[in-house]
Amino acid sequence: MSNLPTIWTYGKYSGNNYGVNALAVSVGALDVYFSYRTPVAFRTPGRLVVRENDWGPTTGKHLNWIDDGEKDARVSGAEFERLLSAEIERREATVPQVA
């Protein structure tokens, strides 16, 4: 398995024009899902964190694709940002520094 980032679409669009708005980036075991240019969810082994929809119906559709419509499990925007930042910081702490 490579630790190089990969970019993929999670969207269920019938055409190619809209998939660019439902992208995810995977780096190692961390997947970050975007709606347009905004991170809206992340997945690590055994954990999926999805933020509440603070935008509109299109982002709501993206969120439903990610979590199969489990709206009760979604977290606030502030909590999502805190959790994602903590996950990224934790991963940065485990990356060896080059002298």
Short overview:
28% of the residues lie in helices and 26% in strands. With 99 residues, the protein is α+β, with helices and mostly antiparallel strands. The protein is globular and about 45 Å long.
List the keywords.
alpha+beta, 99 residues, single chain, globular, 2 helices, 26% strand
Question: How are the SSEs ordered, and which strands pair?
Answer:
Elements (H helix, E strand, L loop, with lengths): L5 E4 L13 E5 L2 E6 L2 E7 L2 E4 L6 H11 L9 H17 L6
Order of helices and strands: EEEEEHH
- On the 0 to 100 scale, the average pLDDT is 89
Instruction: Compute the number of strand runs.
Output: 5
Number of helices: 2
Total domain units: 1
Low-confidence stretches: none
Please report which band the strand proportion falls in: under 5%, 5-15%, 15-25%, 25-35%, 35-45% or over 45%. 25-35%
Shape: globular
How do the strands line up in the largest sheet? Answer: 1-2-3-4-5
Rounded to the nearest angstrom, the radius of gyration is 14 Å
- Rounded to the nearest angstrom, the distance between the terminal CA atoms is 26 Å
Biggest β-sheet, characterized?
5 strands, antiparallel
Task: Bin the helical content.
Answer: 25-40%
Structural class: alpha+beta
Explain this structure:
The chain is an alpha+beta fold and 99 residues long. It has one domain (6-93). It is built from two helices and five strands. It has a five-stranded antiparallel β-sheet with strand order 1-2-3-4-5, sandwiched between helices. A hairpin with a 2-residue loop joins β4 (38-44) and β5. The protein starts with 5 loop residues before the first strand and ends in a 6-residue tail after the last helix. The model has no long low-confidence stretch (mean pLDDT 89).
